[in-house]
Amino acid sequence: MVDKKEQILATALRLFVADGFHGTPTSKIALEAGVANGTLFYHYKTKEELMVALYNSIKGELANNILSFAQAEGFITTRFKNIFIHSVYWALKNPEKFYYIQQFNFSPHLAKVPKDIFKQQAMPYTQLIGEGIKKKLLRQQPEELVTALFNGQVYGVCQYLKSAGLDSGEQEKTINEAYDMVWDMLKYT
Amino acid sequence: MVDKKEQILATALRLFVADGFHGTPTSKIALEAGVANGTLFYHYKTKEELMVALYNSIKGELANNILSFAQAEGFITTRFKNIFIHSVYWALKNPEKFYYIQQFNFSPHLAKVPKDIFKQQAMPYTQLIGEGIKKKLLRQQPEELVTALFNGQVYGVCQYLKSAGLDSGEQEKTINEAYDMVWDMLKYT
Amino acid sequence: MVDKKEQILATALRLFVADGFHGTPTSKIALEAGVANGTLFYHYKTKEELMVALYNSIKGELANNILSFAQAEGFITTRFKNIFIHSVYWALKNPEKFYYIQQFNFSPHLAKVPKDIFKQQAMPYTQLIGEGIKKKLLRQQPEELVTALFNGQVYGVCQYLKSAGLDSGEQEKTINEAYDMVWDMLKYT
Amino acid sequence: MVDKKEQILATALRLFVADGFHGTPTSKIALEAGVANGTLFYHYKTKEELMVALYNSIKGELANNILSFAQAEGFITTRFKNIFIHSVYWALKNPEKFYYIQQFNFSPHLAKVPKDIFKQQAMPYTQLIGEGIKKKLLRQQPEELVTALFNGQVYGVCQYLKSAGLDSGEQEKTINEAYDMVWDMLKYT
DNA sequence: TATGAATGAGGTTTCATTCAT
DNA sequence: AATGAATGAAACCTCATTCAT
Fold first, then answer.
1. A138: β partners
2. Per-residue pLDDT for A87 more than 70?
C-alpha cells in the first residue's frame, strides 16, 4: 500500500484541479484517498497547509527535472534551449500539475509560501540567464526582465498547445519554432 | 452618494483581490460597501453572478481602452505597438483590476462566462494580428500562437515592472525596449 | 412569540446547568430553543460569548434585585440584614441561576468578563459595607475582607439549605439564625 | 527521570487550571509531559479517569495534611483553630491544587466520584465539629450548617488573601484575626 | 511499558441565500 | 429599491481513543 500521505497529496491534486480549492471539501479528498477524515488533518494541520505542501512538492519536482539541463556541460545556448523545451514538455506531460501551479500562483495562498524557498528553487536557472547576459549571448537587459519574458513564453506556448490539439509531430515542430522565436527575442544583438 | 450597485462592485474588487473569492464573504462586501446584506442579493442573484459581473465589467473597460488603438487609422505596425504599450500602461495603472482578471482566469468560475462574449471582446485585436500575418508583417504562424505569445509578453513585462520599482522615466524606457524585443520575436523574417 | 434572543438565553441556562458547558452542544441549545442553528450564532458570535452574555444577564438581574435594599432609607444595619436575607432568598428561588454563576465563577471563562463591570455591579453593596466600617458598626477590617467573608456566608447557607430539604418555615428560621451568626462575626466589638 | 505517571498528573494539573477541562486536550498534556499520546491512555483509561484521579490525589493530600491536626491530642478548640489556619495555609501554598478542587467541585464530573469516599475523607473533620456541638463549645445548630459556614469562611479568607497581596507577616495576622471572627460566629453563646 | 499513526464521530462556526417588511 | 433577521446545509477541524508494533 502506498504511503497515505502521498495518497492524500495525489488525490488533492486531482480534485483541486477539477473543482478548485473552494470546490473541494477536505472530506472528499479523504474519502477518495481512502483514508479517514482525521488522517488528513493528522498529516496536514490545515487545508491550506495541504495546499501549500502540494504546491511545494510539485515545484520541487519541476525544479529537479530542469536542474539537470541547467547544470549540464556544454554551451550555454544549448542548455538554455534544453530548459525551454523540457519545461514545455514537462508541462504537457503533467497538465494537472502545471495547471495547479498556475491556479495557486494566482491565489491569495501564494503569500503563505516563504520567499526564500522561491529564490532557492529558481537559482540554477537564474544563474544561467545571468551568465548568458554577462557573456553577451543574451540581451543586455536586467536579469529579472529576461527571466520574466522567458517564463512568459513558456507559459504562452503551453497555453496554445493545450487548446490547439496537435499531433506529437506537429507539437515538436511548434515547440522548436517557438523556441526560435524566443531566441530571436532574447539573443544578443 | 454613489450608486449602491457600483459601490458593491468596487468593494468586491478590493476584497476579492485582497483575500480571494473564498476568503471574502458576501456579508463583508455588503458591510464595507455600506449596504445591507440583502441589498447585495437584490442586485446580484448569487455571489458568482457578482464575480462574473465584475469580471465582465473590467474586461469591458480594458477592451474599450484598447479598442481605439486597434481600430485607429495608420500602419498596422504602429497600431500593434500601441496596443502592447497601452495594455501594459493600463495594467500598471489598474493593478487590482489586472490581478483580478488573472485570478478569475485561473479559477473554475471562468467556465461560467459564455465563450462568445470572449471572442467578441478579443475580436478587433485578433483581427489585427490575423491581418498582420496575412500581409507578411508578422511571422507565418497560427494566429492563436502569435496571440498567445504576445499576451505572454504583456503579462511578463507587467510582472517585472511590478516588482522592479522603477521611476516613470525608466518604466517608459523599459516598456519600449520590451516592445522592441517582442517585435523581434513576432516580426516577419 | 418570545424574543428569540431571550429564548436562546433561557434554554442555554437550563442546559448548561444540567449538562455543563462542554456537555451542551450549541446545536442542542438551538434545537430546544426552537431556532435554527445559525440563529444562535447570529445573535452570539461564539459559544463563549453566549456563556458570558448569560452570566452578565444573571448578575445584572441579581444586582438589580439587591440594589433596592442597599439603597433603601433606614439604618445601615437593617439594610445590611436585608441584603443578606434577600440574597439567600433569591438564590433559593433561582437555583439554576445561582448554580450557573458558581459554575461560571470557577471556570476559565471568567477571565473574559471585563473587571470594571464587576466592580460597578458590586459598588452599592461595597459602599454600604465601607460605610458600616467607617461608622464603627462593623469590624475594623479591610472592606474587601469583610465583603469576602460576608459573601462566603451567603454561599455557605445556600449550600446547606439546598441539601437540607427543610420546609419554608424552618428555612426562614435557619436563614435568620444564620444571619445572627454572621452578624456576630462582622459586628463592631 | 520522574515517573511518567506522576509527570502526567502534574502536567494535567497545570493545564487544567490554566485552560479548563475542555480547553485542555489530552494530546497537549501528553506533549508537555514529554510522553507519547498513547502512554497517557495506558495509565488512565479515559480523560475523565485522569481528571478524577487528579482530584482524588489532591483531596487525599489535603486530607492527610489536615488529619494530623484534627486527630491531635489537646483541647477541641485548639484543634479547631489549627484546622482552620492550616487549611488556609495549605491553600495559599498550593494555589493550583486549591483552584483545581473548586473547579472540579463545580463541574458535572463531580458526580463520578463515589460519595462514600467523600464522607470518609471528611469524617475526622465532621466528627470534630459534631463533638464540639455536643460538648456545647459550638453553636447548637445542625452539624452540616456549621460545617458549611466554616468551609465558607476558609474559602472567603483565601479569596481575599489571593487578591490582597500582603507580606507574610500581615498574612499571618489576617488569618488569625479572621479565625477570631469565625470563632465569634460559631462559638457557643 | 511505551509508542504514535490512524480513526471517525461530533463540535463549532461560516455563509450564501431568502423573505417579510 | 432596500433591509437585516433568520435559516440550515455544509465546511473545517478537534480530539478522545485504539491498536499494531
1. A187
2. yes
C136: region left, alpha or beta (phi > 0 left; psi from -120 to 50 alpha): left
Answer whether residue C172 shows pLDDT above 80. Answer: yes
B/e letters for A139-168, b = 16+ CB within 10 Å, e = fewer, are bebebebbbbbbbbbbbbbbbbbeeeeeee
Instruction: Read off the DSSP letter of residue A106.
Output: T
- CA-based nearest residue to A128, from A155, A152, A146, A154: A146
| pLDDT of D114 over the 90 cut | no
Amino acid at A103: Q
How far, in Å, are A161, A189, B90, B108, C144 from residue B105 at the CA level?
A: 17, 36, 18, 8, 67
Taken in order of first residue, the domains within chain B and their CATH numbers are 1-44 (1.10.10.60), 48-186 (1.10.357.10)
Q: What is the pLDDT of residue D68?
A: 83
Nucleotides of chain E touched by protein CB (<7 A): 1-20
Residue B58 has pLDDT above 70, yes or no: yes
Chains D, A in contact, 3 or more Cβ pairs below 8 Å: no
B35 touches strand F (CB under 7 A): yes
Chain D residues with CB-CB distance to C142 below 8 A: 160, 164
Q: What is the DSSP string of C111-138?
A: GGS-HHHHHHHHHHHHHHHHHHHHTTSB
Helices D115-134/D47-71 angle, 10° precision: 20
Q: Is strand F less than 7 A from the beta carbon of A41?
A: yes
B47-56, B143-152, C124-133 — most confident range: B47-56
pLDDT at D1 over 60: no
* Angstrom distance (rounded) from CA D95 to CA B170: 69
Dihedral sign, CA of C131, C136, C137, C143? positive
Q: Do C108 and D145 touch (CB under 8 A)?
A: no
Burial of B12 (0-12, 13-18, 19+ CB in 10 A): buried
What is the per-residue pLDDT for C18?
92
pLDDT tens digits, one per residue of C86-136: 999 999 999 999 999 989 998 999 988 988 888 888 887 888 899 999 999
Quick: pLDDT tens for D13-71. 999 999 999 999 999 999 999 999 999 999 999 999 999 999 999 999 988 888 888 78
Hey, what's the cell of C121?
Answer: 455591579
